[in-house]
């Protein structure tokens, strides 16, 4: 049944008290939350449990009945060393899980976004994006981080609720819940090949091969990776997830008639690890799906990377030696430009200023050059980072090749510039934008005009 907001609340531009009708927005509101295979009675309970690595304490928290009891246990837990970095991510996981498990709460959260009316110069105007503000009475560092007190605070909990609300409205909440909750393998080369052998009445009728994806949807939706056509199957019934640790999980996506692993039902929105030879059934369908997982190609890639990493480490150790001859350095790194890095896979229309600022954290940058295509005039997706000297180049190269480098969301590739390749690229590229070239041409023309006029004047004076 669709929930409706009280009529008198429709004109409010913000919700800053999570009480009465809006008490469901509070972290203390009773609602099931699953975190690391333990079910908790509220977001607040799961959040406090996540601070502890002791399984007994976590289980104890999962059984509590009151906020007072939770507070007593929470006071005895010390924050982990990296808690400041992890807490926002954990809170997002818990809040998404809370609303994923309750259709009623999802709908109530979505309705808080509905347009409200205000009067501007006697005219009614509709405005959306109602603010959700988590208000606190005490100005503690924690309360100021998650909410607002006396008009001051970061309101991170309220912002997370607004983000989830937007995802619900755009039908993205299921996908975001899954991506935040599970450590999904994103590297295509490290993904397995999954084979499903489909049988009916003891006879194999089909073989389905799944590869090159981090997760696969199963259900009646035409967009699902595995179509399940039985009428009792839900539109989005289940999902396979490939984790970073070479584990394949199956998740029941809140299906109506259930998902069965080796004849045992999987709880709604719970996950189970799959093994070779496991058998799956969906709803009341008589078809059996036997699963086989092949990580052989991924393991070959891991071994290749391990060997390459060992070579790179040896090479970097040599490069990092002081007073290494230039010839030896050139032999090791294969470069001829002594102070320049070549950076590729840059975002479109990258700013030279931003790129210079980014690489300045590694070493002293002298100049950044981003070429432009001579034919189209468009900016290329690579650049040359020129450093103050060879020592600065060595420092930057060492720091940027030992870990992944991200610039404005892109995984960029960094290597020492090669003279021959660079000269070939510059044959088809300009180092200045067409706009700058036009300005330079106009300036040069103006200078020529001024010189011509001055010559005319001088000649007239001599006459």
TrEMBL record:
The keyword Chloroplast does not apply. SUPFAM superfamilies: RNA-binding domain, RBD, SMAD/FHA domain, YbiA-like. Residues 216-266 form the FHA domain. Residues 445-463 have a biased composition (Basic and acidic residues). Keywords: Coiled coil, RNA-binding. Pfam families: FHA, RRM_1. Transmembrane segments: none annotated. GO terms for molecular function: RNA binding. Residues 339-419 form the RRM domain. InterPro entries: Cell_Proc_Reg/RNA_Proc, FHA_dom, NADAR, Nucleotide-bd_a/b_plait_sf, RBD_domain_sf, RRM_dom, SMAD_FHA_dom_sf, YbiA-like_sf. Residues 432-463 are annotated as: Disordered. Residues 292-319 form a coiled coil. This is FHA domain protein. The lineage of its organism: Eukaryota, Sar, Alveolata, Ciliophora, Intramacronucleata.
